[in-house]
Amino acid sequence: MLAGIWAEPRPPRPPVRVWRDWALSSGLVAISLVELLVRDDRAWAPLLIGVSVVVAACLLWRRTSPLVAVAVAFGTVLAFDIARIAVIDATGLLGIAGLLVLPYSLLRWGAGREAALGLGIVLIWVPVTLAVDPTSPAERVAGYGFFLFSAALGAAVRYRTSSHDREIEQVRLRQRNELARELHDTVGHRVSAIAVQAQAGRALSAADPERALATLVTIEEEASRTLQEMRALVGVLRDGTDADLAPRRGVADIERLARPGGEVLGVRVQVSGDVEAVDPAISTALYLIAAEAVTNATRHASGATQVTVAVAASRGQVRLRVHDDGAARPAGSAPDGFGLRGMAERASLLGGTLRAGPDPDGGWSVDVSLPRTARAS
């Protein structure tokens, strides 16, 4: 823990000096001048004013160079107090009360090692200045307490700000992950379907021009829907709204994934149970997972001729199974990418489970179990 504190970096973007900083420093110097004018003893006036000016000037660099500010200010006052003990007979000015601000700034804006070194300087100075003037035990405790409280307040504000920044970063990361998942599951699936249809059209172009033309019409329709979904995503990003991405598909749309075999891998869809009563969020997730699993099978299932998509809704759960009859693959040979990760994240966020891997009967299966109603987040 101590090593972590020592290695703590400075907080980013310390505030620049503003008019309030100049007003504070000028006010402290003005207080010292007024106090000196009303005193009877002015023998060491230049020295006292010099110390006050140094302390006030250090406050201007308390955020950008906190350790330097602490070292110069407390070092100057320490030398002054030692001189009071050994050489001169003078009392300090109220203007040096600005020292109380420096431990706060040190813990708020300094690096870990700067905070440790700066506090060491402060703790060396406190007993010296308390020894200059006779004080009671309660006054000594109060002297330490003032500066330690200032440092603790700076550390507390720093911790709170850091926690708030981490929360904001986590929200941003979650939003990026959600956007990446939407792009992959919607637009990515559409583009994959277009690529598959284009391959089929190229294979049919010489032998069956009419079917090739029908394939081009399908490609045009898929491209139009892809453009609509991309515009919906961009609209949400530009407007900053929390609207549902349209168009939203559901369990009923899984039947659209069905296609006969031939040049392209055949897909058979089976839907059973009361799927219309499934929560819309669950329904959309099932469609997106099914579409992604079919796309993965089309891309990666070696030797497959058929993909079976089965959806069964029971009283409390909805189960989805996507199985291809391709060559068996080891569990660790799943294709790299974001497909399986996105499917698993989507299922987990809705309180469900997903298992993807080789099927004991051959081929590859994706099994998903989701509650009929999405859990509250």
From TrEMBL:
Phosphoprotein in keyword set: yes
Keyword annotations: ATP-binding, Kinase, Membrane, Nucleotide-binding, Phosphoprotein, Transferase, Transmembrane, Transmembrane helix, Two-component regulatory system
PANTHER family in alphabetical order: NITRATE/NITRITE SENSOR PROTEIN NARX-RELATED, NITRATE_NITRITE SENSOR PROTEIN NARQ
Domain (Signal transduction histidine kinase subgroup 3 dimerisation and phosphoacceptor) ranges: 176-240
GO molecular function, one term: phosphorelay sensor kinase activity
Disordered: region residues: 351-377
EC number(s) given by UniProt: 2.7.13.3
High-level lineage: Bacteria, Bacillati, Actinomycetota, Actinomycetes, Geodermatophilales
Membrane spanning stretches: 44-61, 68-87, 93-109, 116-135, 141-159
Gene3D superfamilies: 1.20.5.1930, Histidine kinase-like ATPase, C-terminal domain
Pfam families: HATPase_c, HisKA_3
GO cellular component: membrane
InterPro entries: HATPase_C_sf, HATPase_dom, Sensor_HK_TwoCompSys, Sig_transdc_His_kin_sub3_dim/P
Residues of the Histidine kinase/HSP90-like ATPase domain: 284-373
Catalytic activity: ATP + protein L-histidine = ADP + protein N-phospho-L-histidine
Name assigned to this protein: histidine kinase
Domain of life, per lineage: Bacteria
